[in-house]
């Protein structure tokens, strides 16, 4: 099936669908609370503070540099410049927001529903001396409290995946963007390849382990953006530049699996933590089977 349980032609369904269209905030918050140590020890450092994948090119020589390079890549595709006001929708612990403020002399507001991430983001903000240029608020990105036309840029780095109905985020971003404002999204994109039963099992293992309800296809995103009123939509497949980052996560997870599984069966380690590690293995298996790709989506609000 080209569109199914893990993506789907949502436009053919009743809108808004009952019971599923809003993000499961309790699940998202619990996931990030329980997996913080894994992110902290296996992925980010004090320089990049990144919870996202890395971008590798000829100038990239380390994992940490690849994470910064991903920020730079999205910023270049958006066209960020000094003096803009940016919303980091799903800001994590503030890595991208802090980097944007220091690199481009912009004002950044980061939002996340995860209270512990706000606490950490504020601490990192002070440590990086960007107080006054960066702020963080505990909000949910499909329904914010900001006035219309509040931002020049909406930035979403691997966060839209947590929304069951991605149209709610795209519509809210459109409301918040000023005329000519730019939307930039890094995301896992479902391919149109028909899925076997084995494919669906792998996808379910990956997505459920990372608190992701579903993925959307290229056609899904482009149709939704057009219906809402965006123009200049572009979705670029950058999987070749991200594969090394995804492969690193896969091998690290395999390395730690025996020890962590022993802790899990003995009751020392939680199911959420172990499912997170298993999902890191399954995402790469799904990638090798051609079930998804890593994309950068940009669009302009024309109003």
Largest β sheet strand count, sense and barrel closure: 7 strands, mixed
What would CATH call the homologous superfamily?
Vaccinia Virus protein VP39
| Topology, number of strands | 7
Q: How far do the termini sit from each other?
A: 36 Å
Strand content is: 15-25%
Overall pLDDT level = 94
| Computed Rg | 18 Å
Q: Which regions contain 5 or more consecutive residues with pLDDT less than 50?
A: 1-17
Helix content: 40-55%
Placed side by side, the strands forming the largest sheet appear as 3-2-1-4-5-7-6
Task: Write the H/E string, N to C.
Answer: HHEHEHEEHEHHEHHE
CATH class: Alpha Beta
What is the 3D shape? globular
CATH architecture designation: 3-Layer(aba) Sandwich
**SS summary, helix count:** 9
According to CATH, the fold-level topology is: Rossmann fold
Count of domain modules: 1
Overview of this protein structure:
It is a single chain. The chain is about 45% helix and about 20% strand. The protein is α/β, with parallel strands linked by helices. The chain has a single domain (about 10-195, about 215-255, about 290-300), classed as Vaccinia Virus protein VP39 (Rossmann fold, 3-Layer(aba) Sandwich), CATH 3.40.50.150. Strand 2, helix 4 and strand 3 (about 135-140) form a beta-alpha-beta unit. It is globular, with a radius of gyration of 18 Å.
Q: How would you describe this structure in keywords?
A:
globular; single chain; Rossmann fold; alpha/beta; 303 residues; seven-stranded mixed β-sheet; disordered N terminus; 7 strands
